[in-house]
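Help needed: design a sequence for this.
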């Protein structure tokens, strides 16, 4: 290593020379600062621990650890070790073939570890790195109590960060008719177990409508924030037993899973770090007394209590913004896949299963009279899920993959922003792959947490007539027939046809997962950076290019890795 590089590292270790322009506290113990410069990201990780620290770019859609690109750093007796890793399962992440994350400085003082690392936003390693993109990025973080890299226990988290670029659109607070309703858990005592799914419901004042719902904002109880893993907001078309069960209480999801009238329409989903969600400014979800309007809502909250602490009382939930100043279009939700959870297959233990469903050309030709504009996607399976995605076809050619999760994790569910137009004659194919490894009995498709589903809830405008709230597969057990449904009642000939589903299958090659496969040739990262520092001026004068500015020094040094 040249003297220039040694000198630069010495300067960086003392001051880094950059002024971080962004900061976020990810947990009480973990703070991150960053700056983007010259197509690189520079991070400072400040963590209350004397063990290892880790940070990563999560699975792009779900944000889970499987599918993440991770960097870990340990400091032992003043010497730091950095390792670039990738994860494809809930096991120790593998070491990346290309070590693209670089260490700038690291120190342990007063029970804290502070490290500074950097990397290109987009590396040449496309199979073991995740690109850091403009807008929201899903991230994971963790730390340990020992210097040796080991299981983090409860010292972990996941959130979303906008490192650069345009943040998600904000809710328009200038509307003079803007109002809000709040739906939260009702002083719910979180059970002293690792995982709980709680639920609560509300009847909207639809008789006073019409209103347009135009945004959602998380309401998180600070005392229990670390235990609120994610939540899902559903709309109910009737005051069903499911809705009624949760109307005056917050209870366990599994206690109500067998009830009829499940509130199946997924309206919005939140995970830590997600900003308030704004519906496109030309549309809103209509609340009112007319059939097809939204009238009832149910909230499902996933509580994560890894230390099984008792006595925690939660009142987290969502603030729902509405306006009486109706927008140009009504928005709604189109469910594709196995929309009515009618797949009759009984999945045996320790086996992989693959299913494909479509919303065929013949269906979209029937129910689409004007183009539909889609802005949100919520992919949904349960805990045996492995992989899920939806493709968009037109005139025999695939236009795009609308949304995809290659490393499904039931604990990581959230709404993804999409932007596509569905025309009459287009086709949507939805795929779900399951692995029943470790299960002792058969797995069926149904409403329970241990049952399975395969759905993509797509939000769009302008709203179709109510009977066209779904498009996809349905099995009719009385006649042992497979139907393609594109309406509310899959048993009526007017909305279902006795044709095979999928009507056309996607190429098998689309199942392939490239992330985690062997990396190609590793590329060197030669980075030239200007630093401002007050130290080591004499050394720099003789070994670098220096311009004195009062007591500061401007230094240009090349980092070659």
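Sure. Designed sequence:
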């Amino acid at each position: 290593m040249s003297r220039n590089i040694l000198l630069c590292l010495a300067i960086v270790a003392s001051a880094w020379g950059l002024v971080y322009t962004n900061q976020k506290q990810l947990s009480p113990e973990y703070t991150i600062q960053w700056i983007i410069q010259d197509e690189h990201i520079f991070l400072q990780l400040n963590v209350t621990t004397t063990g290892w620290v880790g940070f990563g770019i999560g699975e792009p859609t779900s944000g889970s650890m499987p599918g993440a690109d991770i960097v870990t750093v340990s400091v032992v007796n003043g010497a730091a070790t950095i390792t670039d890793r990738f994860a494809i399962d809930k096991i120790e992440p593998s070491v990346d073939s290309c070590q693209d994350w670089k260490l700038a400085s690291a120190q342990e003082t007063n029970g804290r570890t502070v490290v500074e690392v950097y990397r290109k936003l987009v590396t040449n390693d496309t199979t073991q790195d995740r690109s850091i993109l403009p807008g929201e990025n899903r991230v994971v973080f963790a730390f340990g109590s020992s210097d040796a890299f080991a299981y983090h226990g409860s010292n972990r988290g996941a959130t979303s960060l906008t490192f650069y670029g345009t943040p998600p659109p904000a809710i328009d607070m200038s509307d003079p008719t803007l109002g809000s309703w709040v739906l939260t858990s009702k002083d719910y005592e979180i059970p002293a177990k690792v995982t709980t799914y709680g639920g609560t419901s509300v009847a909207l004042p639809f008789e006073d409508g019409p209103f347009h719902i135009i945004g959602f904002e998380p309401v998180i109880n600070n005392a229990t924030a670390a235990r609120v893993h994610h939540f899902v907001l559903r709309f109910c078309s009737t005051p069903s037993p499911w809705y009624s069960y949760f109307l005056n209480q917050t209870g366990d999801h599994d206690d109500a899973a067998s009830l009829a009238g499940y509130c199946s329409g997924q309206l919005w989903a939140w995970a830590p770090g997600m900003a308030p969600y704004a519906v496109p400014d030309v549309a809103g979800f209509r609340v009112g007394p007319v059939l097809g309007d939204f009238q009832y809502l149910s909230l499902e909250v996933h509580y994560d209590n890894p230390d099984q602490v008792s006595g925690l009382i939660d009142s987290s939930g969502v603030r729902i913004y509405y306006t009486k100043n109706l927008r140009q279009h009504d928005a709604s939700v189109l469910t594709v896949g196995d929309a009515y959870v009618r797949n009759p297959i009984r999945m045996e233990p320790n086996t992989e299963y693959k299913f494909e469903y479509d919303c065929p050309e013949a269906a979209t030709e029937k129910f689409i009279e004007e183009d539909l504009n889609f802005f949100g996607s919520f992919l949904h399976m349960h805990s045996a899920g492995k992989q899920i995605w939806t493709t968009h076809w037109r005139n025999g050619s695939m236009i795009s993959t609308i949304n995809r999760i290659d490393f499904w994790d039931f604990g990581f569910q959230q709404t993804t922003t999409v932007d596509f137009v569905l025309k009459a004659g287009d086709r949507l194919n939805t795929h779900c792959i399951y692995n029943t490894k470790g299960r002792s009995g058969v797995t069926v498709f149904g409403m329970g947490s241990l049952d399975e589903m395969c759905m993509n809830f797509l939000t769009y405008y302008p709203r179709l007539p109510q009977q066209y709230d779904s498009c996809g597969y349905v099995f009719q057990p009385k006649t042992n027939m497979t139907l393609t449904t594109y309406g509310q009642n899959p048993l009526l000939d007017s909305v279902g046809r006795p044709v095979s589903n999928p009507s056309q299958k996607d190429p098998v090659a689309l199942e392939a997962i490239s992330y985690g496969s062997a990396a190609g040739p590793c590329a060197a990262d030669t980075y030239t950076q200007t630093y401002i520092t007050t130290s080591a001026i004499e050394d720099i004068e003789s070994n670098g290019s220096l311009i004195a500015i009062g007591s500061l020094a401007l230094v240009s040094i090349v980092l070659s890795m």
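The chain is about 5% helix and 45% strand.
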